[in-house]
């Protein structure tokens, strides 16, 4: 199989159910999800085999991030549909529910925060903050797409929750590395403490 097809040389690309310009809102949406997936892969690559393997300090994160990569492909696949009824959708509400459970699990490890924090800290936490910001951009691209074209609404919900997960995972990665959060100095108290 050849990698190059030459079919996109005219500035168009194939989606499931047709062809569109390469800067179409649909391509922007699933392309940004693809970009996010690459950053998730980069975050995983920062873990040593010992840290990522069963019993390692970040084994749960490595496992969860790999599953997220699979599901981001599902998101891209659903976004690449010219019409959502061309085939069964892959991203469902249960995926969002699981992300919420993961957020709660990771959040339980970290100290309470009341103010905005600066992205950074350990290399893994910094990479997860990059994932968070790219995820927010992907979500914005999906919102733009949904204004004019049909989408799987669960993809939008998934990306919204996923950015929260990346934030929580970044804080957990710093906590496990013994790195404290750095609060934004001029932040008001915007977060409520846990019940």
Walk me through this protein's architecture.
This is Corrinoid adenosyltransferase. Pfam families: Cob_adeno_trans (PF01923). Keywords: ATP-binding, Cobalamin biosynthesis, Nucleotide-binding, Transferase. Belongs to the Cob(I)alamin adenosyltransferase family. Pathway: Cofactor biosynthesis; adenosylcobalamin biosynthesis; adenosylcobalamin from cob(II)yrinate a,c-diamide: step 2/7. This protein has 195 residues and is mainly α. It has one domain (22-177): Cobalamin adenosyltransferase-like (Hypothetical Protein Ta1238, Chain: A, Up-down Bundle), CATH 1.20.1200.10. It is 57% helix and 4% strand. The chain has six helices and two strands. It has helices spanning 25-45, 49-52, 59-79, 93-107, 123-148, 153-177, and strands spanning 12-15, 18-21. It has a two-stranded antiparallel sheet with strand order 1-2. Helix 1 (25-45) runs antiparallel to helix 5 (123-148) and helix 4 packs parallel to helix 6 (153-177). The longest helix has 26 residues, at 123-148. The chain is globular. The chain starts with 11 loop residues before the first strand and ends in an 18-residue tail after the last helix.
Main features:
single chain; 2 strands; Hypothetical Protein Ta1238, Chain: A; 195 residues; mainly alpha
């Amino acid at each position: 199989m050849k990698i190059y097809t030459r079919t996109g040389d005219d500035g168009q690309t194939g989606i499931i159910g047709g062809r569109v310009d390469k800067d179409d809102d649909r391509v922007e949406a699933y392309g940004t999800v693809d970009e996010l997936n690459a950053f998730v892969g980069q975050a995983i690559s920062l873990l040593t085999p010992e840290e990522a393997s069963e019993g390692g300090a970040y084994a749960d994160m490595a496992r969860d991030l790999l599953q997220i990569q699979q599901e981001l492909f599902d998101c891209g696949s659903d976004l690449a549909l010219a019409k959502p009824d061309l085939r069964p959708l892959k991203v469902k509400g249960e995926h969002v529910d699981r992300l919420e459970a993961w957020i709660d699990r990771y959040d339980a490890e970290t100290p309470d925060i009341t103010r905005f924090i600066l992205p950074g800290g350990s290399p893994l936490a910094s990479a997860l903050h990059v994932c968070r910001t790219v995820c927010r951009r992907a979500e914005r691209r999906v919102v733009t797409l949904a204004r004019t074209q049909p989408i799987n609404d669960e993809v939008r919900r998934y990306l919204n929750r996923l950015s929260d997960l990346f934030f929580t995972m970044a804080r957990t990665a710093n906590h496990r590395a013994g790195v404290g959060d750095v609060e934004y100095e001029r932040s008001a108290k915007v977060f409520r403490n846990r019940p």
